Amino acid sequence: MDMFKRVPITEQDPKERATNFDEVCLGYTEEEAMAEASRCLQCKHHPCVGNCPVSIDIPRFIKHIAEGEFEQAAHVLAEYSALPAVCGRVCPQEEQCEKVCVRGIKGEAVSIGKLERFAADWAREHNVEVGKTKEKNGFKVAVIGSGPAGVTCAGDLAKEGYDVTIFEALHETGGVLVYGIPEFRLPKDKVVKPEIENLKKLGVKIETNVIIGRTVTIDSLIEEEGFDAVFVGSGAGLPKFMGIPGENLNGVFSANEFLTRNNLMKAFREDHDTPIKVGDKVAVIGGGNVAMDAARTALRLGADVWIVYRRTEKELPARVEEVHHAMEEGVKFELLTSPVEVIGNEDGWVKAIRCQRMELGEPDKSGRRRPKPIEGSEFEFDVDTVIMALGTSPNPLIASTTEGLEVNERKCIIADESGQTTREGVFSGGDAVTGSATVILAMGAGKKAAESIDKYIKEKNSQSSNA
Amino acid sequence: MYKIVKKKDLAPNIFSMDILAPRVADSAQPGQFLIVIVDEIGERIPLTICDYDREKGTVNIVVQTAGASTKRIAVLNEGDYLKDVVGPLGEPSEYINEDIEEVKKKKILFVAGGVGAAPVYPQVKWFRDHDIDVDVIIGAKTKELIILENEMKKVAGKLYIATDDGSYGFNGMVTGLIEDLVKNQGKEYDLIVSIGPMIMMKFVCLLTKKLGIKTIVSLNPIMVDGTGMCGACRVTVGDETKFACVDGPEFDGHLVDFDEALKRQAQYKKEEAELAERGEQKICTCQHEHGGAN
Ligand SMILES: Cc1cc2nc3c(=O)[nH]c(=O)nc-3n(C[C@H](O)[C@H](O)[C@H](O)COP(=O)(O)OP(=O)(O)OC[C@H]3O[C@@H](n4cnc5c(N)ncnc54)[C@H](O)[C@@H]3O)c2cc1C
Ligand SMILES: Cc1cc2nc3c(=O)[nH]c(=O)nc-3n(C[C@H](O)[C@H](O)[C@H](O)COP(=O)(O)OP(=O)(O)OC[C@H]3O[C@@H](n4cnc5c(N)ncnc54)[C@H](O)[C@@H]3O)c2cc1C
Ligand code: SF4
Ligand code: SF4
Ligand code: FES
Asked: The complex's ipTM?
């Protein structure tokens, strides 16, 4: 085998997968995983580890795979991550661990993500128990939101012996993992559900259909229901619109609406009640993971799809793999283009978008070159559906109903490194604090907060028992 | 799972249910709604909280069968369960947080259209509980579609009925009756609260704008999550886009762009019709299992 090249991974054929919702990437077999793992140089200074937000001991778990010790590999992962099967699939690896892999200097980086996914899938398929729980300590912690941040925090605290209850606004648990990221990238029954089942095995209680700020408040959880601490992992679910004319026409959707109808409510399945509308020609506005997911979903529902993005391919914020997959499947890209108006027909339905061509100017704060409109470049683009994938911000509901919980000007909850908010006993992390980011960062924040909550409760009670 | 503890038919295709949902009952306020999912394949259906009993932990809903999902709720009986109930959602009515002495000074008229009588009822009851008399109009196409008349009588100051076909009460639509009350019967109102079909609210608002009476409406656009996450429920109020599920559902009716709202509400008409057809088949097998409704 060529040690400079990755062991290729099996994927569904682009033509075929463009018509179904099954997972695109089929994963490594045991032999393939061992061969890929053997490419790892086991570097002493292992730069990969430093570039993983939760510092997974990458060479160690990969070594186990190389030696066929898959169960041990899974145990290593479990020391650092609550959701390896998820992160192995959706982490922007090329920006993180794989970016600095020493193998990548002369050839292709080791497929760290795919190997992580392999070990986690293997463990699940072979019913390997990876969590151990300490004896119950009698303290109660409330976790708000069941996305990656909440799930990680709840799991870690349950293992420490806490009595943990998750409160989730929706009728299903998983946060973006169930309502946002589509089945073809992250299978729900196979990958997400078992992670939640594991939590229940650890003794975590889950109450769905509870909206904190409406059904109950944080204050009543603490004062009336006796919770010793609260973790807020409510994410950043509020969709942004552009504020251009015609945005409320029929046929204009937020990516959240489109994806929620399809993923959470399973509109793509004939036997489910929730309807979904996808026209013949769909423009998805934006260039991130959310835009790619919406585009590839619309494609699978039978539409012709364009991504409309105001910078160039190089600046697309989506994972490289997703862009590549979208292109392979037939999503078209209208780059350096930005809509200025949605045009409707007499019945109030979208018939076109008026767009402007852009060019790249000076770099902005993020270091990306700022797009600016080219004068006189306006043109009309015929579409019957427009999906806005412009990003999201945190929902203000919790902060506005919790005494002393402060947010910054971007509506993000203010919390320090440890997850401590401006209110005693209330911790927060994930998208609710950072604005929309990544699964692994949310998980990392959930983990940190679990440590802080443990410390907070223990210190508080040793003080009160000394007093 | 949420148990249906009581069910009552109110009119053809309109029924009421008490559902055991203690957390919702505990925090519900007039003006708010909840979301129901019937079963594994059901959609999220928003319904107004028509009443609540904090002691028993129940909330009351009144449902008019429209399409697939509401029909699947309709065949359920006492003792059956709804898969999900979430709420309370939306902002409570404005007057709840106002100075009660100020509220007492106002002359208020509630205008309910069809099943809209159900969400009007707890509001009128709230005023009764605070010793305030408010007038109420219930309007419907025909006599047998008038619901909650007796319940409303007990809590309203004066109750007026209007039917489109003149089979009961005032002969004509609610707008005709409002005009009659104000122009011919010397009634004066500081505030009108109108709840019912979107088209009715539109015409009530056109009239009250002319009459110069502030009007609050409760909008019922298409919703998905009901928590501010999707934007399906967006409406134009003044020159702003609002999400009805978190900013509403009640708004100043004179600022609402009803024409846009009406178009948006019809967005899934075709799909809903197809689903309704499939729904009929589902209900059929369902009734066999339950041994038929009633
Ligand atoms: C379409 C899409 C694709 C993405 N693709 C990727 C990817 O490929 N890779 C990657 O790393 N990241 C991706 N992301 C981002 C990633 O999913 C998020 O950063 C991550 O899920 C954040 O986790 P969280 O736990 O902070 O919040 P969330 O996952 O948003 O979970 C928050 C949960 O809290 C609940 N909640 C909110 N308010 C309340 C309340 N008041 N009461 C009770 N519960 C409440 C919500 O219903 C939700 O379930 C994607 C995001 C989207 C939308
Ligand atoms: C805040 C609010 C409060 C409501 N309160 C009540 C109530 O107390 N009693 C009652 O009978 N109905 C109420 N409705 C309307 C009720 O939600 C719809 O009638 C129901 O969703 C229709 O579902 P269906 O599948 O049976 O009918 P469908 O055939 O699916 O639809 C029938 C009609 O309802 C509209 N509709 C479809 N889905 C939705 C949706 N998710 N949200 C809103 N409208 C939709 C359609 O545009 C169509 O005009 C309320 C709606 C809202 C938004
Ligand atoms: S969690 Fe993400 S960054 Fe860390 S090793 Fe896995 S794929 Fe790489
Ligand atoms: S940098 Fe690459 S080759 Fe080196 S230890 Fe990490 S994964 Fe292995
Ligand atoms: S229903 Fe989704 S934002 Fe209002």
From this structure: 0.89
